[in-house]
Amino acid sequence: MREDLTKAKEIVEAYECDPSNLIAIMQEIQAEYKYLSEEALTLVAEELGISTARVYSVATFYENFSLEAKGRHIIKVCAGTACHVRKSQPIYDAIHDYLALTGKRKTSADGLFTLETVACLGACGLAPVMTIDGEVHAKMTPETALALLEDIRNKEAV
Amino acid sequence: MRNIQTKLNRDSFHVFQANAKNALKQSGQVPSVLICAGTGCIAGGAMKIYEVLKEECEQRGLRVYVGLKHDTDEEKSLHVKMSGCHGFCEMGPLVHIEPMGVMYIHVKPEDCHEILERTVLGGEIIDRLVYHLDGVAYPHQADIPFYKRQHRVVLENCGSSDAEDIEEYVAKGGYAAFEKALFEMTGEEICKTITDSGLRGRGGGGFPAGRKWEGARKQQTEQKYIVCNGDEGDPGAFMDRSIMEGNPHSVLEGMMIAGLAVGSDTGYIYVRAEYPLAVTRLKAAIAKAEAYGLLGEHIMGTDFSFRIHVNRGAGAFVCGEGSALTASIEGKRGMPRVKPPRTIEHGLWASPTVLNNVETFANVPLIIRNGVEWYRSIGTKTSPGTKAFALTGNVVNTGLIEVPMGTTIREVVFDIGGGIRDGKKFKAVQIGGPSGGATTASQEHLDLPLDFDSLKSIGAMIGSGGLVVMDEDTCMVETARFFMEFTQKESCGKCVPCREGTKRMLEILDRIIANQGTLEDLDLLEELADTISSTALCGLGQSACKPVQSTLKYFRDEYLRHVVDHHCPICNKEKPHPTIEADKCKGCGKCRKNCPMEAISGTVKQPHTIDPDKCVNCGACVSICPFGAITASKEG
Question: Which among B226, B274, B474, B477 is least surrounded, fewest beta carbons within 10 Å?
Answer without folding.
Answer: B474
